[in-house]
Amino acid sequence: MSDADREELMRERLHRLADDVDPRPDALPTLLAATRRRHRRRHVPLLVAVTAAAAVAVLSAVVLVVPGRNAAEPVSVGPDSYLAQPRPGVVAEFDLGSGAHDRRLAEVPAATGALAADGERVYAGTADGIVQLAPDGTGRALPGTDDVPERISAAGGRVAFPTAGAVAVLHGGARTSVPLPPGLRVQDLALAPDGALAVLAAAPGESAARLYVLPAGAHDWRPLPDPSGCGPVAVSFSGADVAALQPVSCTDPRLRVTTLRAEDGRIVGGGAVLPAERPLEPGEAGLSTDALGRHLVSVPGGGQWLVDGAEVRDVPWPCTREGECAPDPGVLRS
């Protein structure tokens, strides 16, 4: 084979390599080895230079030609803050990174400490019902919430809170009452964007609370298996999955957030261990989840952490510049 033929063959191979936007990891070394075997030593410098240029072309093709990624666009991750009530009747935002008191969102007379967030909508429980707070701090009382809600959950334009023997759901100006299994005492609840419900509740004669899930459109509550054997202490939704805050074991009070499939309770995420120092009662801690799948775990008198996959970060307890601190857990903006 002449030098001209070898050069043409090499060019064809390089073009095929550059056209492949997802080359095998060994494509370039293989081409180098094959070409070196066919060329005299005096052609090696030229080959290396040409193949290096081809490698740059391949990388450029991978970066620029991948379908659907021709133009990089910034992705908003939403506000890096959470909500808490540092003093009676005041709802404020706090920075997750520094713990600084960002701003006062609203004054809510007779607030009970129950909070929930659904995007830009914030809900606060009061002695007269639930108040919805707009981004500018103005509030309006929600109809159909004459009860005094101890806990609130909000998602997908819905608001849920426990009542005697049922869970009340507000949606589109209407109130629906979802009956609970007889005798259940709700210690925590969570609402998914599609309308599914989860409650942490104790049945008569049971010392530990269990998780019960009501899928969207269903009528029967499903008990989920208890991964720890000694009961979760808080519940939230992480997308379509249930996030449960639970002790590592019945003899180890440290906590972790375990993610469970809502349909059968199968564990799909274990979570890092949090340095809790004492056993907790169901409903004593706060667990909230944002749209990025991060969890805020708040233990009054015990600490506060942001759980992002395997990473755990300490978050200062919500206190004002004047030293007033929230008695109740904070809530992530979703």
TrEMBL record:
Transmembrane segments: 46-66
Superkingdom in the source lineage: Bacteria
Keywords from the named record: Membrane, Transmembrane, Transmembrane helix
Protein name per the record: FbpC C-terminal regulatory nucleotide binding domain-containing protein
Organism name: Saccharopolyspora montiporae
